[in-house]
Structure formats: C-alpha cells, structure tokens
Specification:
The chain is an alpha/beta fold. It has one domain: NAD(P)-binding Rossmann-like Domain (Rossmann fold), CATH 3.40.50.720. Helix content is 44%, strand content 15%. It has 7 helices and 7 strands. Strands 3-2-1-4-5-6-7 form a 7-stranded parallel sheet, sandwiched between helices. α4 links the parallel β4 and β5. α1 packs across α7, α3 packs parallel to α4 and α4 runs parallel beside α5. The chain is globular. The model has no long low-confidence stretch (mean pLDDT 94). Bound molecules: NADP nicotinamide-adenine-dinucleotide phosphate.
Amino acid sequence: MKFQPKTILITGASKGIGRAIVERLGINGPDPENKIYHSFILTARSKDKIQELAQKINQTGGKAIAIPCDVKNEKEIQNVVEEGLKTFGKIDVLINNAGIGKFKRVDEFTYEEFIEIIQVNLIAPFLFTKYVVPSMIKNKSGQIINISSVAGLNGFKTGTAYSASKFGLNGFTESLREDVKDYGIAVTVICPGGVRTGFGGSDENRIKDFLLEPDDVAHTVEYLIHESETANTKLIELKPRKRKEFRI
Ligand SMILES: NC(=O)c1ccc[n+]([C@@H]2O[C@H](COP(=O)([O-])OP(=O)(O)OC[C@H]3O[C@@H](n4cnc5c(N)ncnc54)[C@H](OP(=O)(O)O)[C@@H]3O)[C@@H](O)[C@H]2O)c1
C-alpha cells in the first residue's frame, strides 16, 4: 500500500471547503483500488448535512461518524474528541476548518460580533488541539492542519476582526509546531485566497471574480496528508491563479 489510512477529525464539514476535503479524501482514500479508505469524525452545527455526508462515506467503503457541535462551546468540542477516540481509538489528523467572517468598518462592529469571530476562528482551533494533542503525544505521531487565510498574512479594509483572528491562528500554529514537534506531530497552516463558497454571504462581484474552487484547497490537504513522515510543510499560501487583486 502506498499510503496509510488515517483517522481524520474535521470541523466545518457541512459545506464549502470542509465538505470538499471530506469528499476528496473519502472518495480517493489512500488506496481506493484496494478498497482502503480513511476514517472520518465529521463535525459542524448542521446535523442533517454531516449525517448525510457520513452516510455517503460509509457507502463508499470508508468509515465516518457525524457529531454535531457548536465550536463556541468547549464541552461540545470535548465531546466530539472523546466520541471520536472512543469510536476509532485514535485521531491521526485534526483539520481545524470551521470559520466565519463579517466585514465592516471597525467602529461598526459590536463587541459580541468581534468576540464571536475570534471564538470560532481562533479559540475553537485551540480547544480542538488541546483535547486531541494528548492522544497524539501518546502515539508519538499525528498531524494538525489549520485552515487560515491570506487575511492571516495581509490586513485589508473591513477586515479588522477576520484578519485579527487569522493572524492569531497563524501565530498559534507556528508556536504549536514548536510545542509538539518532538512528538512527531506535523503542524501546517494553509492560507487560501478567495474560495468559491457561501462564506461570509454571497457577494455577486466576488462570485464573478477569479476564485479558487473548494476542491483546490482539498487537493492541498490531500497532499499534506500524504506528506513524508520526515517532512513538515509549515505554511502554504494558496492563490487563485488568475485573480487580479495581488494580495487576495
Ligand atoms: N471561502 C473563502 O473565500 C475562504 C478563503 C480563505 C479561507 N477561508 C477559510 O476556510 C474555512 C472554511 O470556509 P468556507 O469557505 O468553507 O465557509 P462556509 O462554506 O461558510 O463553511 C463554514 C463551515 O464552518 C462551520 N461553522 C461556522 N460556525 C460554526 C460554529 N459556531 N460551530 C460549528 N461549525 C461552524 C459551518 O458549519 P455549520 O454552519 O453547519 O455549523 C461550515 O461547515 C474558514 O475557516 C474560512 O475562514 C475561506
């Protein structure tokens, strides 16, 4: 077998990039010719959507469980990790993908709106990592992939809350790598430019622009999951090939 099957916990699996990652990895698996597939712990708030996706994976030949969770709730996060470990005995890969964005001038943000963006985009990846890492340390292997954004590398007008959360996630990821690298755990942050999803509400101009497809990000994740055990790609900045705006 070329690649090992992995148990993958992914947040934000109900739609957009998260769903595309599950569809690509679930169908391609590490070795579909020999009917060897990855296993998945899928989470998001939309129970029906993740259950339907889990069913699709289970029909393909892989194994998947769907555990609904609001990532603003620490107890619910802890429950996802515990149920995942109870079912599969290990988590090889954690993909922190769930995220939200609201965009307006700084003085127009309420305290609650600003905090919610930081909670979903930064505190939730910390909490999932906190609860998953002890089992990875025990196994002396694992991989954590954080889906950040080019907004984690560049500020922009109306982006105070979103950029703060994604710059924070990039800094968190860099320090996390130092914390866990001695245990054989790989840590990567992916910073995509605009992706064609319903993220942040549908904006006609945005949809017309050159954008990445959700499967482009999934393809990058697939590469990372099959990366050599002796390597660790730290950061990937993934741009739409033709987009005119140079930073996004
Ligand atoms: N689209 C872009 O242009 C773009 C570019 C760069 C980076 N990103 C990043 O990529 C990631 C995925 O974005 P996307 O484009 O796929 O957006 P999306 O289509 O809006 O999907 C967001 C996902 O996050 C989940 N989520 C949001 N709030 C949640 C909460 N409180 N609890 C649990 N799950 C929650 C949603 O699930 P439920 O609603 O079912 O809970 C959904 O599965 C985000 O981190 C985003 O910042 C996106």
